[in-house]
UniProtKB/TrEMBL annotation:
Its cofactor is Mg(2+); Mn(2+). This is CRISPR-associated endonuclease Cas1. HAMAP family: Cas1. The gene is cas1. The keyword RNA-binding does not apply.
Length: 304
């Protein structure tokens, strides 16, 4: 079954959301100002000034739509998600918990290598130097990345990508390029949550990310290879131009998740597939985790 991909963002609007006949209706003072078909939705972002009816919450979860509650910065602080209906959920959760250290390390090494190769392609795509240097680093990644080649690559990558702006990557920042990255990564994480839960996996049991306060460690592992595609979309935006928070800018970042990821597949579809492959990997059905590599921009399917 095809899965929705659209994002409904009402974090900055004093609106109410209700459910009517297969769609979410966005209302102000009882008047409908927007509609979104549930079959097309993937993520709904709501803020402190938004209200959502119980019927809308139930309908959204029945349609596998992730609802993320965001603070004043637009950073998610909670959420509502559909329970997985896969028949493998119990077996996969137990297999995740019992996954051996060598297999965890092997999976993480493959994720890191794919991410760094994607970063190299991002630099190539926007005409920056450093792609070959990153490819050399990617080829040196060992199981578990004990030398932290990911960190080395990140320092080179961010300096080459946005160094001309005196950029420093600061997660959670509400300023400039960081704000754009944080918003786009929030959307990406929402898609990742759906993919992991749909695969019958526990989002808490990661292969590398294991923060005690992080309920989505595995999601943060799974989205790493997809970040370079999002970075490319952010790099297309002029941070000096007015209206950085304009709807058109947010639409551009949301649509980045529809970017082609090779072989005629889009980013969100490939993320779903990766989560399913990881499920088979933890259950021992495959010996190695096949992690996709973003190899440069393809067409983005706009949400009209």
């Amino acid at each position: 079954m095809a899965r929705g991909w659209q994002v409904l963002d009402v974090t900055s609007s004093p609106v109410s959301i209700r459910h009517r006949r297969g769609e979410l209706q966005v209302c102000v003072d009882g008047e409908i100002v927007g509609r979104a078909m549930l079959a097309d939705l993937a993520v709904v972002l709501i803020g402190a000034r938004s209200s959502v009816s119980g019927g809308a919450l139930i309908a959204a979860t029945e349609h596998d739509v992730a609802i993320l509650m965001c603070d004043w910065r637009g950073v998610p602080v909670g959420g509502a998600y559909a329970w997985s209906n896969t028949t493998r959920v119990g077996a996969r959760n137990r297999a995740q918990a019992a996954l051996s250290a060598p297999r965890r390390k092997n999976a993480w090494g493959r994720v890191v290598r794919a991410k760094i190769l994607g970063q190299a392609h991002t630099l190539d795509a926007i005409g920056r130097s450093g792609g070959n240097e990153l490819r050399d680093i990617a080829n040196s990644v060992r199981s578990g990345d004990p030398e932290n080649r990911e960190g080395l690559a990140a320092r080179i990558y961010w300096q080459r990508l946005f160094g001309h702006e005196e950029f420093s990557r600061i997660p959670g920042s509400a300023e400039g390029r960081n704000a754009l990255l944080n918003y786009a990564y929030t959307i990406l994480r929402g898609h990742g949550i759906r993919a992991v839960l749909a695969a019958g996996l526990s989002p808490t049991l990661g292969v590398f990310h294991r923060g005690r306060s992080n309920p989505f460690s595995l999601v943060d592992d799974m989205i790493e290879p997809f970040r370079p595609a999002i970075d490319y979309a952010v790099a297309q935006i002029d941070v000096e131009a007015p209206g950085m928070d304009a709807p058109a800018t947010k639409k551009h970042l949301v649509n980045a998740s529809r970017m082609g990821f090779g072989c005629g597949r889009i980013l969100t579809t490939e993320m779903d597939s990766l989560a399913q492959r990881f499920g088979r990997y933890v259950e021992g059905e495959v010996a190695k985790l096949d992690v996709p590599v973003w190899d440069g921009p393809e067409e983005v399917i706009d949400d009209e």
